[in-house]
Amino acid sequence: MRFILFSVFIFLNTLVVTAQTVQQRLDSLFQSLNQDGELSGAFLVADSGKVVFEKYLGFQDASKTERITSNSRFELASVSKQFTAMAIMQLEEQGKLSYEDDIIKYFPHLKFKNVRVKNLLRHTSGIPDFFSFPEKWIDTKKINNNSDILKILEKHSDSISFKPGEQCSYSNTNYLLLAMIVEKVSGQPFAVYMQQRIFKPAGMRHTSVFSARSPQADLKNYAKGIAYNIDNKKFIDIDDFETYKYATYFDGVNGPYGISSTTEDILKWNQALQNHTLLKRDNFIKAISSDTLTNGKLISRHHIYQGFGWEFMDSTNNENKMHFHTGGYPGYQTIFVRNPENQWYFVALINKLNTIGVFPLTMAVAAILEKKETLPLIEREKLTGAITLVESQIKQLLGTYEYTKQPDLKFKITAGDSGNLFAQLSGQAAIEVYPKNNLELFYTAIQAMLKFSKENDEVSTLTLYQNGQELTFNKVK
To answer: Tell me: the pLDDT tens digits for 353-408?
Structure first.
């Protein structure tokens, strides 16, 4: 088999035009990225306390009836975690809880031992991600909330993956439990606490804990998630994808995600952090400070250090260092970056799964703000119809598979740091493959498909479909 992978590259301005202002360069950047007209989202850049660039592109849903504006609200995905962490930090500042509290204090029926609140904040608890739960544990015919997930944990989860503090493993369950701790300690529903103690004091009038699929949801000015459908070669709403049905039955969860906001409200959040409106300065520094595992190594994931709802590349406890968090949820890509030292801030809220990653976009914006002569290359793949899988869906596919009739012929499925998947057949190079759904991957340069099958809710086989042939490989590790 011969594999050829090709990409489309957009080379951004490699040389500064001296007459161009920062605003003009940013505008040129987004024009370059939106040549196909498929970029959809809200983007805001602030520098030295002033908004220097805003861009609103695309539509609030696949029907293209309402354009995205400055009032458009987006699901923040995991950018929500910094707000949940703030609530915990406020309660700790008030002496109502301790980071050293064992979570059994709040959830006496959980079977996890020696998990502290601090382990939840930095993803060192070892508690499994609820996105990895077997579907048979979940009532998929209703919108599940935090209490529903807690009941599943109490019933089915007997142990953690590692001793608390030994490793760092990202788990959305950590922040679901933190949201429930906020409720137990404050005596208020999470949504009410966040509104009264965080959003309102920060002046965030268009931000709320929000379930888009609840019967009472107000969808005015709400940007729905959209993705490309390979079957009809059109962008359609996320809810029309079978693969993304979990976005509906997990829509009542909040804490790890479940907060909707606008770019302008995120700027107000930034100002509240700068002014220490919500938390004392010294206490917020803890959120962007490094800590260590039990073996003495700094807590990190993919070489990125973990704070309280924030991530950072600089391990020093410097309050002016850059810190950020990204978010990904069906139809959404989000990022909020704070760079207090250079006084610039960037937020991107995207509601269409496309081929522009928020990390390379951020690097290009940063290069412009820092007046660099060259901008980094942003690579764009052709529209393939690929969807985005959550981390738990990616993990279930990874491993080595042996051909049933020739055991020395193997397929190895691996993932890069950004979650992109690679398939490597014995004797050949690893080639990137793309998810059609959570159990099907396809190549872009040849007519070939990889389909996975499950047994007892675990992936057990991989079948290669190419040139009318079917080759089945058994998972061995």
So the answer is: 766 778 889 999 999 999 998 888 776 555 666 777 887 889 899 999 998 877 77
Question: What's the CA gap between 469 and 448, in Å, rounded?
Answer: 10
| 391 contact partners, CB below 8 Å, separation of at least 6 | 129, 131, 170, 419
Q: Based on the domain organization, do 338 and 415 belong to the same domain? A: no
Q: Are residues 398 and 332 in the same domain?
A: no
Residue with tokens 């479909």: 465
| Sheet with 259-261: strands ordered across | 74-75, 259-261, 208-209
Q: To 5 degrees, how large is the angle CA 36–CA 390–CA 227?
A: 30
Q: What is the CATH number of the domain that holds 425?
A: 2.40.128
Structural domain that includes position 460: 391-475
Report the DSSP beta bridge partners of residue 423.
413, 431
Residues 352 and 398 in one domain: no
Helix (H) or strand (E) holding 286: helix 281-287
Helices (H) and strands (E) in the chain, counts: 11, 24
pTM of the model: 0.82
| 25 three-state secondary structure | helix
Same domain for 396 and 363: no
145: domain CATH number is 3.40.710.10
Mapped onto helix, strand or coil, the DSSP state of residue 406 is strand
Choose among 242, 222, 221: nearest CA to 230: 242
Nearest to 330 by CA among 131, 55, 142, 133: 131
Rounded Cα distance, 263 and 261, in Å? 7
In a domain, 337, yes or no: yes
Same-domain pairing of 260 and 406: no
Query: Does some domain include residue 182?
Result: yes
Q: 277 and 140, same structural domain?
A: yes
Tell whether 383 is covered by a domain.
no
The phi, psi pair for 231, rounded to 5°, reads: -70, -45
Same domain, 294 and 405: no
Helices (H), 307-431: 358-369, 391-397
Q: What is the pLDDT of residues 25-58, one digit of tens each?
A: 999 999 998 888 889 999 999 998 899 999 999 9
d(CA 453, CA 52): 50
Rounded CA separation 384/393 (Å): 19
Pairing of strands 469-475, 399-403: antiparallel
pLDDT in the model for residue 11: 40
432 domain residue, yes or no:
yes
| 289 and 401 share one domain | no
Tally of domains within the chain: 2
Q: Give residues with Cβ within 8 angstroms of 325, minimum separation 6.
A: 78, 79, 81, 82, 309, 310, 311, 335, 336
Q: Are 262 and 72 in contact (CB under 8 A)?
A: yes
